[in-house]
Please model this.
Amino acid sequence: MNDMINVSYDSQIPNNVGLSSDRRVLKALKKWHPGYINWWSGTIPKQFQDANVYLRTAVSVDSGGWAKFDYVKMPDYKWGVLLAPQVEDRRICFGEHAGEKAWQEVPGEYRAMLRRLIVIQGDTEPGSVEQQKFLGLTAPSLYDMRNLFQVNVEEGRHLWAMVYLLHKYFGADGREEADLLLRRSSGSEEAPRMLGAFNEETPDWLSFFMFTYFTDRDGKMQLESLAQSGFDPLSRTCRFMLTEEAHHMFVGETGVGRTIQATLNAMSKAGITDPYDINGIRDLGVIDLPTIQKKLNLHYSLSLDLFGQEVSTNAANSFNAGIKGRYMEHRLKDDHRLSDQTYTIKTLEDGLIVPKIVPALSAINMRLRDDYVVDAMGGINRWNRSIKREKIDFTLRLPHEGFNRSIGLFAGHSVTPNGEVISKSSWDTQSVDWLPSSDDASFIVSLMKPCHEVGKFASWIAPPKVGINNQAGDFEYVQLHMA
Ligand code: BYC
Ligand code: FE
Ligand code: FE
Model:
């Protein structure tokens, strides 16, 4: 059993899938590797490729201690193929195959469906690195710069994880898809990334924190539901990815939290109690809370789009097939087939938002999104507690699910953050109050001055409470100037 846990570094690609004895896949991955390094070097600016970054590397899949921290140059990072240990006699726990043995190979009838989901998952990972590629240049501290690069190398590893599945289980078309994953590019006209949110810009660090809070959390929910998959290698790889994902959301939650804290500290010092004294607050070199709310509105609504249509036959089919389950499927107490159950969604009828009862099977995407909203509330409540502690009269809120949507039942409609349906012309005049305006954007960008001095932080963000791997406050997380 131990060889399932220990990682083999005997070949170029650290792995616990016995790559060295799988000549065919090893060869395919070695062929793919230069293209990957080429993509990485072309994405992350050169000066950071040469820096020593204090990174964690996955060295085992043992839940007790899977990571090792050390200085690494990013192009030398060991992007490995790591799957959670195989569970003996694992059974499919939902859909029409419930109770059957999990598949170790791809069932022919589900090949296209599985490949599509793996490709979509794989496509988001490099997409996010591309979106974040210039942020190193304006990092508010070396601590934050290190966190950015940690997230980036792990998203790179998640791409490897999907590419491994494509090479191992999907033959020639899998190889072709793996190549295409390096060919598409975030925001590109000709070959954009597959899902909307991964073609948006991440122009500043507050966007990065909102992205890792809201969009990486979609990643968590999608990985959780793929971790339920009857296709065992997919399940195992997603389970291990989830251990890394937790840190990405930590970076997001604490990043937004520290931004709020710096604002509160500056307001208190200057004796400002009105959170809407925008100019007074901005003059202090911090981001006012209403603007933070607008950034939240934007990234939340973009992330809701990632759950797909509220009513989806794709989702029903992949649930029936045992390919993609619900969040925590194994803990749910029902028949796990949903043959005659219902689920309530919201829809628009005659300009009003009303509840609608639909077959539960068709509402799998909606259900996952509802679970996501609950999950996303935790951090919001903690941010609000810190605002309350300073006695500032302001509460951050998640906007209505219909706000600013491009996918699903609300796409093409104008819905306020409070859930009021309004005309297109009212939207056009009022949306500057709800989404970052170009003025907001240029103000935030004006704060994005690099702060690369050891132990120092930019004005707009408070230092973290604890260091990475318990390092002291003056730890040099990134060594930029090499002798
Ligand atoms: N943008 O029936 P529907 C992460 C398409 S994030 C553009 O609802 P389905 C990460 C859809 O493809 C997690 N197109 O589809 C986070 C379909 O097109 P076709 C990524 C969209 O399949 C941060 C059509 O509309 N993983 O890991 O039920 C950093 C009908 O839609 C969008 C996954 O998403 C969109 N937003 O649901 C790094 C898991 N939404 O095929 C990484 C795998 C829908 O009819 N993917 N469409 O031409 C899935 O499970 C599903 O594909 C989706 C969509 C949930 C995304
Ligand atoms: Fe990821
Ligand atoms: Fe992530």
About this structure: The mean pLDDT is 95.
